Amino acid sequence: MPRTYDRHGIRFSYPEQWELTEERQPEQITIGVSNAETTSWNLCLLAHRPPPRQVLSAAADAFRDEFSELDEYDVAADTIGGHRAIGKDLEFFCLELLNSASLRVFQTEHYTVLLWWQGTDTELESTRSILEAITDSLRVVDRHEP
Q1: Residue 130's domain spans which residues?
Q2: In a domain, 114, yes or no
Q3: pLDDT > 60? residue 143
Q4: Residue 145 within any structural domain of the chain
């Protein structure tokens, strides 16, 4: 993975051909990388540091509001970027295609971090390992840029 994102105390690697976006709002920075199809990997950095369970619940609610047929699975605690993360895996139909999403939330010294990726199950057959590699490359570094 030749490209590296390194801002706001967050570092990760992603495929060169994927598109990077960054959106800033008061108290929130959203960073995303996506391929030309339906797969995307995203981070939302919440500066006001709400409790991870609250963020996870709100994120799952947003998917539930958008997709009426949604299956939700709690996942065991995970470690991401050296931080304990809680999460859920979701399955839903969109445009008659089965989609999956993975939600993970953890806290750092500066943020509560919501990480999520999603895509159609057909596409995830070839991109899931890429999404996992991006997640595995995620590091929280000491410096903090506003």
Answers
A1: 3-140
A2: yes
A3: no
A4: no
Which amino acid is it at 111?
Y
Give the type of residue at 93: F
User: Per the structure, how many domains does the chain have?
Assistant: 1
Are the CB atoms for 20 and 31 separated by under 8 Å? yes
In this prediction, residue 18 carries a pLDDT of: 96
Q: Which residues of 89-128 are buried (b: 16+ CB within 10 A; e: fewer)?
A: ebebeeeeeebbbbbbbbbbebbbbbbbbbbbeebbeebb
Number of H helices, E strands in the chain: 2, 10
Q: What is the pTM of this model?
A: 0.92
What are 31's two structure tokens?
A: 């960073």
Question: Which of 63, 58, 14 has its CA nearest to residue 40?
Answer: 14
